[in-house]
């Protein structure tokens, strides 16, 4: 069968190759791929900056934002042929650390976790894939054309879960949230904020393309005149930072109201320097009881929360987040960045929506 594979840490090695057919183990589903989302992590792997091949192999099947249709499910499992499913990205480390032992592999302490399509386990960008039943999550069949948004939605479901947990250390009735960045993570974070009943503001740089209207259609407020303007309008109790841009990260931390919570979800390259007034930042954090929390990945609770959030969302709005659908053989186009892209996905023959 065909798969999109890469030699990790080797630029220009991404290509569609023939790989062995997969056979499901006793507790595994065999799944026909429908679509795979492409994100910044995939682009970093494609440029040779990230990723690990499975032990003893050169090539890794890429793809962690999965969506597929069950071809075969073992008897007695909760799944049946035809079910729409997403495979979880991360697996617990083999030790396991305390967090992994408690099902919180998203919080792994020793870094020895593995990840489908990223770290030592083949991903989901192959025509068929297998997944352990306990790491498969079923989606409403009506989400066939948008279910590929599940994995980025799990990331923001975790971010909101973190905000809630940090907030509950004292009286917590937040009113407003500011999301910095209107990419897939930012827009999905805004969606979940609106679903929580918050007044949501979103900051990005662009003034055209689909982003301003996508924000407006959530009944959220779009800002493009910089952080100061957005903060003045939003006076946010919560900031979800989804750009990883240093100036925005520190600006966001300083921007929150008293008892403000900033959740950082954007990964930035190392080596970018910024001059900050450390004394002022410290004063603000202390005197306002502010909290800053980093958040990455997601566990099964967040997958379930994300499935609920997608099922509750306006279907047409979700469909507009997928701005390009590219067939597997034209993968190179999917890895190009274009103006007006929100989420680009690879599609598979077996899985035309
Ligand atoms: Zn991703
Ligand atoms: Zn662990």
UniProtKB/TrEMBL annotation:
InterPro entries: ADH-like_N, Glu_dehyd_C, GroES-like_sf, NAD(P)-bd_dom_sf
This protein's record includes keyword Metal-binding: yes
Domain of life: Bacteria
Keyword Metal-binding carried by entry: yes
Stored Pfam families: ADH_N, Glu_dehyd_C
Required cofactor(s): Zn(2+)
Domain Glucose dehydrogenase C-terminal: 145-348
Entry keyword set: Metal-binding, Oxidoreductase, Zinc
Name under which the protein is recorded: Glucose 1-dehydrogenase
Species: Cellulomonas septica
């Amino acid at each position: 069968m065909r798969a999109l594979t890469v030699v990790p840490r080797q630029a220009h090695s991404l290509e569609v190759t023939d790989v062995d057919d997969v056979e499901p183990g006793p507790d595994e589903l065999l799944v026909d791929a429908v679509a795979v989302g492409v994100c910044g992590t995939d682009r970093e792997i494609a440029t040779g900056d990230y990723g690990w091949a499975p032990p003893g192999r050169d090539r890794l099947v890429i793809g962690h934002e999965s969506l597929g249709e069950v071809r075969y499910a073992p008897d007695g499992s909760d799944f049946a042929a035809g079910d729409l499913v997403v495979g979880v990205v991360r697996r617990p480390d083999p030790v396991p650390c305390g967090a992994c032992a408690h099902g919180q592999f998203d919080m792994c302490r020793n870094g020895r976790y593995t990840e489908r399509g990223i770290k030592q386990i083949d991903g989901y960008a192959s025509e068929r894939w297998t997944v352990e039943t306990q790491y498969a999550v079923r989606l409403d069949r009506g989400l066939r054309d948008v279910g590929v948004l599940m994995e980025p939605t799990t990331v923001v479901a975790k971010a909101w879960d973190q905000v809630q947990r940090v907030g509950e250390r004292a009286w917590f009735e937040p009113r407003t949230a500011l999301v910095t960045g209107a990419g897939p993570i930012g827009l999905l974070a805004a969606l979940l904020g609106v679903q929580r009943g918050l007044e949501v503001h979103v900051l990005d740089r662009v003034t055209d393309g689909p982003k301003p209207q996508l924000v407006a259609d959530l009944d959220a407020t779009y800002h493009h005149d910089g952080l100061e303007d957005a903060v003045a309008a939003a006076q946010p109790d919560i900031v979800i930072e989804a750009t990883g841009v240093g100036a925005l990260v520190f600006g966001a931390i300083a921007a929150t109201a008293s008892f403000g919570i900033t959740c950082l979800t954007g990964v930035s390259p190392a080596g970018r320097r910024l001059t900050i007034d450390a004394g002022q930042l410290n004063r603000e954090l202390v005197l306002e009881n502010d909290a800053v929390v980093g958040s990455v990945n997601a566990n099964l609770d967040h997958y379930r929360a994300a499935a609920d959030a997608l099922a509750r969302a306006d279907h047409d709005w979700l469909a507009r987040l997928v701005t390009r659908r590219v067939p597997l053989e034209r993968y190179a186009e999917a890895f190009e960045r274009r103006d007006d892209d929100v989420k680009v996905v690879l599609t598979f023959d077996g899985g035309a929506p």
